[in-house]
Amino acid sequence: MEQMVKLLIPKNRMNYLIKQVQDRYDAVILEEGWDCYHKGRVTNVSLIGGRVEALVKGTQNSKTVIDLEDFPDSECSCSHNGYCKHMAAVFFSLYSPYGRPELILQQLKQAILTRKKSKHAAPSPQDKKLAKPIEPMADQLPQEWQRFFEGKFHGFSISHQNSIETFFDSALETLPLYAEKWNEPLRIVYKLHVILFMMRKIEQFYQDTKSSYLSYYHENGCKLAAEKCQEQLLELIKSIEAKPKNIAAEPKHWQATLTLLGELSLHGKDSPIDWLFIYRLIWWNIDEKLGWSQKEQRRLELLLDKKDLLARKKDTLLIARAHFDVIRGNWEQAFGRLDELHTCNASDFFIYLKNDYQHERYEDTLRWLRWLLPSIHKAAHEDFRSFCQFWLDTAKQLDSDAEWVEVMESLLPRSYYYYTAYLLQTQRYKLWVDLQLANRISPLSLYALELRAIEECDPSLLLPLYHQAVERTVLEKNRTSYKTAVRLLKKLHSYYKQLNQEERWEQFIYRLADKFSRLRAFQEELKKGKWIR
After folding, report:
1. Which of 85, 279, 386, 442 could anchor a disulfide with 32, C-beta 3.0 to 4.6 Å?
2. Is residue 323 situated within a structural domain?
3. Is residue 223 predicted with pLDDT exceeding 50?
């Protein structure tokens, strides 16, 4: 296939072409043009004056001319009447130096669809209202603010030019400015609504682009934007914790906020937003004296009483309801509800582990760790790592580490790295060696510092480890493995010398030579080491 030539035309001409294609093309013909370009059929691209000439190969080759000054004067030698796929293919070829043509294709198709809709239907009164939003006011309820936010970003969609990061930056830069002169309690609840709006839109973008062939890129963008939103929320929560009276100062706004939070957070659907974490984090900072939590608990109980609830939705509601028991320290009720979960995801409960550990409530931390233990075997790698780290940090505060050791043993082999590190740290060298033997780990795969620490304490502990490694290496039966075995034997010999057990070494080496007497190459390596004659 002849390689496509990338011709770089001026950027203002490229923008002109994009506008012309958007206004004049049909989406189907544009898709056919993309197919021609993608199959490498655009060749011999050249710029002559203000016109681009190219040859588009096919059943019949088509000579195509794109006029960069007056697009309607563009022409093609094919039989199609109007703007054809060959012109579109050349357009994509011209765009390729500026970006990914498949992305501009999606953007143009969306714009063409919008253009067609606008021709057949006049804008509704609701659309007009959204198109010209009125600025949010301090005396309005949050529902009005949310309507303003929607109007402000009405029509925004994910495309090549409008990424999810563009939305996040634009929303965060513009929306908080409207409340700059408001009193502090109102500013805080307004900022919370800005964050909730951004999260809601990110989730909407995520759902809208799931079927796209670029969904992987959009999904990653949504997850990154969701993390940034969560960071903004955590910063806002710090200001709420510093001045809890700000909540009581604006009761109507906060009650409306909590209602919206309940609607957004407990659907149990796949989302880049960790709604359950956000729901619990906000409720954690609501004063029980206000009486709002009792109303929310009753609402959750009514939802849980409904029949035919999907497992994921019910799990979400159970965790939300148990959260209020956790806040009040009603552990029996909390764990009673949580024991009904269909699926226990450890990451859903790290919010409690982190909070208890940070406030040095080690007894409560231990309570969560024990409850999570049966389900941690199936946890994701990152969750498992966090769980082990929490256990290790908590074990340091206990009188005995016996339970920690028992837990790590029960989680083998996944806990291997955490367990071995702890055994070395606490100088339980025999247990450490037994673990390496059980996992058939060669000394050559271990850190020299680890082996040296045991060697300085008691070299005899390492003898079984080297014996096993030598035999396993020899059984690989190739010259390279025999050389490796000799390296291990040299180290093993040095340990026998340190222990003044030369006679035992002689017995071992002759038994080894006799056992593998038929392996001539191995016998040669032993003779080179002058261990046998």
Report:
1. 85
2. no
3. yes
What is the spatial order of strands in the sheet that 75-76 belongs to? Answer: 42-48, 51-56, 62-67, 75-76
Tens digits of residue pLDDT in 283-300: 998 977 788 999 999 999
Q: 146 lies in a domain?
A: no
Please indicate, yes or no, if residue 346 is contained in any of the structural domains.
no
User: How many separate domains does the chain show?
Assistant: 3
pTM (2 d.p.): 0.67
CA triplet 194, 222, 213: central angle to 5 degrees? Answer: 140
State how far the Cα of 222 lies from the Cα of 271, in Å rounded to an integer.
9
Read off the tokens for 336: 């009673």
Give the helix ranges, DSSP H, for 121-242.
125-131, 142-152, 164-174, 184-208, 215-242
Give the range of the structural domain holding residue 431, as residue numbers without chain letter: 427-528
Residue 111's pLDDT is what? 82
Same domain, yes or no: 113 and 198: no
Positive or negative, the CA dihedral 341, 342, 344, 348 is negative
What is the rounded radius of gyration, in angstroms, for the C-alpha atoms of the chain? 34
Which residue type is seen at 315? D
Q: How far apart are the first and last CA of the chain?
A: 67
Asked if 275 and 261 touch (Cβ cutoff 8 Å), the reply is: no
Query: Given a cut of 80, is residue 120 above it in pLDDT?
Result: no
Torsion sign, CA atoms 272, 210, 164, 192 = negative
Please give the Cα distance from 371 to 338 (Å, whole number): 10
Distance CA 364, CA 357 (A): 8
Say how far apart CA 211 and CA 67 lie, in whole Å: 36
Distance of CA 53 to the CA centre of its chain: 46
